[in-house]
Design a protein that fits this description.
Helix content is about 40%, strand content about 15%. It is built from nine helices and eleven strands. This is Poly A polymerase head domain-containing protein.
Length: about 260
């Protein structure tokens, strides 16, 4: 997630200090190696099937960029391994680093998002990409500009994973900051202490919990109650669920959200 000067200010919700965290980092080297191999096979297969995405990757390579896959797509592949259940990914997030911006590898039709990254359609998947130094929390708090820092800036623990593909590195590898454990224990929690676009993230929390069959941590439940404190704000979240949730899960997600709100009364 990125922010960019000159774009509208991003609303940020600060989580309480001293909260319990569910961020057990995987130390099973054998699992991480086999998982990286699986993600590499899936990424190779995606590039074979998606000509436009393959072209974007080649452009990044020709520009001397390094690129990693952050969050969602990598998370879905990990979930497949852990839960032995197929997960459909509608988009993929690439974070790049080098002497030029990823913008130079993308078509002129790419759309700049509110955080300063770029969105464009490939043949079969939506691509979101941005330059590593512009990552929201890295830029906001002047954190180290490294790929190792990236998973620590994730919104939710299930997204705290970075995949380094062979297309840009000597060998495929994973950087895990709690994604593996959270997918195994099925508890959804925040990683960073600041939540950008809280109403959007409220919808995402519900969607992720339903998709991945996760429980909500107390912190996430308290966050939902806090930010959805009027009927108008709750409707924004419901609209977000309808917009971004997989169609087959939309009704379940809305029912789950309503139950969380009712439990808070």
């Amino acid at each position: 997630m990125t922010e960019c000067s000159g774009l509208p200010a991003i609303e940020v919700y600060r989580l309480p200090t001293g909260r319990d965290l569910h961020l057990d980092i995987c130390d099973n080297e054998r699992f991480l190696i086999s998982a990286a191999q699986y993600l590499q096979e899936c990424f190779d297969d995606l590039l074979c099937k998606d000509e436009l995405l393959s072209n974007y990757i080649h452009q990044m390579q020709s520009l001397g960029l390094e690129a990693v896959i952050f969050g969602g797509w990598a998370r879905d592949r990990l979930a497949e391994l852990i839960n032995n259940r197929h997960h459909t990914s509608r988009d993929i997030d690439l974070v790049t680093h080098g002497s030029v911006s990823v913008e130079q590898a993308l078509p002129s039709s790419a759309i700049r998002n509110p955080f300063g990254g770029f969105g464009t359609e490939a043949s079969s998947i939506h691509l979101d990409s941005w330059d590593l130094p512009k990552t929201f929390l890295i830029r906001r708090h002047r954190l180290p500009v490294t790929f190792e820092q990236l998973p620590l800036t994730a919104d939710y623990n299930v997204n705290a994973v970075v995949f380094k593909p062979m297309q840009f590195f000597h060998h495929a590898s994973l950087l895990d900051s709690g994604a593996v454990s959270s997918l195994q224990t099925r508890v959804l929690d925040f990683v960073a202490d600041e939540v950008a676009q809280p109403l959007f993230q409220a919808a995402r929390a519900i969607i992720l919990a339903v998709r991945l069959q996760c429980e909500l941590s107390d912190t996430v439940r308290d966050f939902l109650v806090s930010v959805c404190n009027t009927n108008e704000r709750r409707q924004v979240v419901v609209d977000g669920i309808r917009t971004y949730c997989i169609l087959d899960l939309t009704d379940s997600a809305i029912s789950f959200f309503e139950s969380v709100m009712e439990d808070s009364q």
